[in-house]
Amino acid sequence: MPESSPEGNAAPSPSQFPLAVFLGMTVETTGYGTARAEVTIDERHLNPNGVAHGSVVFTLADTSMGAATMSILDDGLPCSTIDTQVRYLRAAGPGRLAVETTIVKPGKRIVHLESRAVDQQGRLVATATGSYAVLGN
User: Fold this and answer.
1) What gap in Å lies between CA 16 and CA 4, rounded to an integer?
2) pLDDT digits (tens, 9 = 90+) for 46-99
3) Whole-model pTM?
């Protein structure tokens, strides 16, 4: 794994990530190899059934996994999603939705992660796993 400080690198700020701004998402690195993404579900996030569209949950997980991966990389080294699998367990209605991500296995070229999405009542909404390529390595 590339050398990095225990604090890791900062996740991309929402000002650098237009989709996060559009969705009202916040993203933060919470430690070395961990990250969190949150959004308050409102009408722009809802599907025709009145619950959060699955793509919102996916985007939170994907963004959180990218931030966790970047937290262990040398400054300026990019990463890219290879694959992501999301298992939806319950609908998320209006209110706060948060995704916590942890690296399962950091590799020199591929990083494997897992995420858990919970609603504001603390109920598990979805789980996700992902693999991210370390680019320029």
Assistant:
1) 22
2) 999 999 999 999 999 999 999 999 999 988 789 999 999 999 999 998 999 999
3) 0.87
Please report which residue ranges of the chain form alpha helices under DSSP H: 18-23, 54-70
Residues whose CB is less than 8 angstroms from the CB of residue 119 and which lie 6 or more positions away in sequence, other chains included: 90, 92, 93, 95, 96, 97, 125
Nearest in space to 128 (alpha carbons), one of 91, 92, 93, 102: 102
Q: Classify domain 14-134 at the CATH topology level.
A: Thiol Ester Dehydrase; Chain A (3.10.129)
Q: Are 116 and 130 in contact (CB under 8 A)?
A: no
Tokens of 50: 């009145």
Q: Please, are residues 70 and 34 in contact by the beta-carbon 8 Å criterion?
A: no
pLDDT digits (tens, 9 = 90+) for 24-42: 999 999 999 999 999 999 9
Token couple for 92: 């998320």
Domain definitions of the chain by residue range: 14-134
